User: What shape does this take?
Amino acid sequence: MSKNVLIVESPAKVATISKVLGKDYTVLATYGH
Assistant: This one.
């Protein structure tokens, strides 16, 4: 079984996007511009 990774810029978005996408996705923040 594979997992999907989604990278976003803002750490504030990680929790919200994680709830929407579910357990099959790992959401990471870059903390950068």
